């Protein structure tokens, strides 16, 4: 069976090929009713854009570069699904690179992406990235750029993030309202934007309920598994918290493991909530309370912004957006004392 073409759609709907082409690209020049008609018909006949033909016509690669710290991370795998969902619908391929939390590797990834002549870049910064001169170089080359999840205030660009402050505030408030007062916060390296925003949410909740902030209850953890477990053992022994709020999938699982090894009953002796996208959170024993980030939606939104920049519906240096997408708190047995 031959693939459906833009000409086939135009003939079936009695439209010009240029109108169909613009409608499929989401062009502002085409009214909403016509776009809807074209998109619905294209979906019905399983139309798929031909990236090679498009790249020859437009002098573009029809490819988006994506750099994430680690694909194995549940958040990033879900975000990539969202990116690919949008890219596929709008006729783009996606090439994915991992920094593995290394600043040097991130720079090499950026250099490789530029060499591949992608049309734009989506990036979530590594745990070591403080200097963003490599991203400023991208902007100097006029390559469209969007940052997501882990971002930097040192660069002016479109950014898409979860509402980290509100999520952390809600998690800490939930623990306070359940009767906990000695709440530890185990988080990622301090230079990350997500760490700073979640710490602020944690501190603001303590302040609201007049609980003094104690720096010794805040523990920053790198990315080595042994480091996390040792840190949590020391925290339990020395600070003796009655609740722990962690900020990643890895830290949540490391914390669970440490508490089990120490024989600490959750939530009777210690309540526990994570900031995580673990798909198995409900299967843990006890089931894990968590702040869920809208990873798929973050990926979709970032990809839409980038494609709009590539297709010049927005200018990179004008009307910059930082889009915050709400999180969701899911209470399960690990923090439920009712």
From TrEMBL:
Ranges where the HTH lacI-type domain occurs: 4-58
Keyword Ribonucleoprotein appears in the UniProt entry: no
SMART domains from the UniProt entry: HTH_LACI
Keyword tags: DNA-binding, Transcription, Transcription regulation
SUPFAM superfamilies per record: lambda repressor-like DNA-binding domains, Periplasmic binding protein-like I
Matching PANTHER family: HTH-TYPE TRANSCRIPTIONAL REGULATOR GALS, LACI-RELATED TRANSCRIPTIONAL REPRESSOR
Protein name as it appears in the record: Transcriptional regulator, LacI family
Source organism per UniProt: Emticicia oligotrophica (strain DSM 17448 / CIP 109782 / MTCC 6937 / GPTSA100-15)
High-level lineage: Bacteria, Pseudomonadati, Bacteroidota, Cytophagia, Cytophagales
